[in-house]
Design brief:
The chain has 8 helices and 13 strands. By secondary structure, the protein is an alpha/beta fold. It folds into 2 domains: 134 residues, Rossmann fold (3-Layer(aba) Sandwich), CATH 3.40.50.720; 187 residues, Dihydrodipicolinate Reductase, domain 2 (2-Layer Sandwich). The strands form 2 sheets. A 7-stranded mixed beta sheet has the order 3-4-2-1-5-6-7, with helices on both faces. A 6-stranded mixed beta sheet has the order 9-8-10-13-12-11. 46% of the residues are buried. The chain binds NADP nicotinamide-adenine-dinucleotide phosphate (NAP) and ligand 3JN. Ligand 3JN binds next to loops.
Length: 334
């Protein structure tokens, strides 16, 4: 019989933390004891795991005694502050934030792409950014077959990507607008109800956002492809859950849409949804709650004279494969 593990979820009350608990339960991860950690605001609350109420405790430097696996999703500053204490206590940290993703001695892992990197960990394994995970799952098998040179991406990111409060903000603004009231903007940088905006995370010196640059730097690291060129625009849309991406891919070798469909039909973590005659293509309402990334609308790039370009549309649940599921899959690999 396999051993059970003592697991802590850091940020348990958040949009990702809740999904982590559900994913551990649904996938029957062998948990002996589950410790739920969050801020002082949540002390006194309980959350259900396998039918049992578990009290939320305050995240402290000594929270990790006896904990073997720590699933962190409480933001980068909490990870930077508390992960070193967890590692000192013998916990393997699987961190959902950007705190350690680009550190040379921290593996950045998507199990369908680079599971072997996990072996190099020194106590911390990083979970990539959600838009990047959703991109690499279908793109990596195409890269392996045909050699990806360049990727141009536009994302369409759900409100829940910005956390539990952004979900409430989308609901409240939509209701207020429909009732003819002025929508209140508190959490997201612009009105999200009945609007979209090209602004996710902070702007950098090159006028790209940090989210856009994560697609380049994290994509290169995960796929072990330092020469990969990426140009990305990240957009927030008024959808509750599941991110979408429009991708233009340029390869070293020729590839037809039919070849791409064959590769993607067999790719782990991908469901091909590409049947336009029957109006079947990836959409967030279909990707929500699913483990796989949906890929479709696969076409030859008609702006080129050769067959080295493809375009496609993908959708994936960023709270699951973009965060909680990927983290639990890493724990399973461990
Ligand atoms: P969220 O819904 O805002 O939840 C944040 C969590 O962090 C809550 O549990 C909160 O606890 C906890 N927290 C905040 N400040 C804390 C403190 N000082 N000490 C202890 N706990 C604290 O955010 P989320 O969407 O779950 O995202 C969390 C992180 O996951 C993000 O910062 C990001 O790095 C990563 N991530 C998110 C997504 C996504 O789609 N949302 C995808 C990939 C990665 P309280 O409830 O007590 O405030
Ligand atoms: O906004 C989204 O759709 C995804 C958000 C991800 C996110 C939000 C706050 C901080 C991240 C991330 O995972 O890259 C971070 C961060 O850790 O930098």
């Amino acid at each position: 019989m396999s051993k059970g593990y003592n697991v802590a979820v850091v940020g348990a009350t958040g949009a990702v933390g809740i999904e982590m608990m559900e994913t551990l339960e649904k996938r029957n991860f062998p948990v002996s004891n589950l410790r739920l950690l969050a801020s002082t605001r949540s002390v006194g609350k309980s959350l259900k795991f396998r039918g049992e109420d578990i009290k939320v405790e305050e995240l402290k430097t000594d929270s990790f005694k006896g904990i073997e696996i720590g699933l962190f999703s409480a933001g980068a500053s909490r990870s930077k502050e508390f992960a070193p204490y967890a590692v000192k206590a013998g916990t393997v940290v699987i961190d959902n934030s950007s705190a350690f993703r680009m550190d040379d001695d921290v593996p950045l892992v998507v199990p369908e792409v680079n599971p072997e990197d996990i072996k190099k960990h020194k106590g911390i394994i990083a979970n990539p950014n959600c838009s990047t995970i959703i991109m690499v799952v279908p793109v990596f098998p195409l890269h392996k077959a045909k050699g990806l040179k360049r990727l141009i991406a536009s994302t369409y990111q759900a409100a829940s990507g910005a956390g539990a409060q952004a979900i409430e903000e989308l609901k409240n603004q939509s209701k207020d607008i429909l009732e003819g009231k002025k929508p209140q903007v508190n959490i997201l940088p612009q009105q999200i109800g009945f609007n979209i905006f090209p602004h996710i995370d902070v702007f950098l010196e090159n006028d790209f956002t940090k989210e856009e640059m994560k697609m380049l730097f994290e994509g290169q690291k995960i796929m072990h492809h330092p020469k990969l060129k990426v140009n990305c625009t990240c957009v927030r849309i008024p959808v509750m859950r599941a991110h979408c991406e429009s991708l233009l891919l340029e390869f070293e070798n020729e590839i037809t849409p039919e070849e791409a469909r064959k590769i993607l039909a067999k790719a782990p973590g991908v469901t091909l949804v590409d049947d336009v005659k029957n109006k079947r293509y990836p959409m967030p309402i279909d990707a929500s709650g699913k483990y796989d990334i949906l890929a479709g609308r696969i076409r030859q790039d008609i702006s080129r004279d050769d067959k080295k370009g493809l375009t496609m549309f993908i959708s994936g649940d960023q709270l699951l494969k973009g965060a909680a599921l990927n983290a639990v899959q890493i724990a399973e690999l461990l």
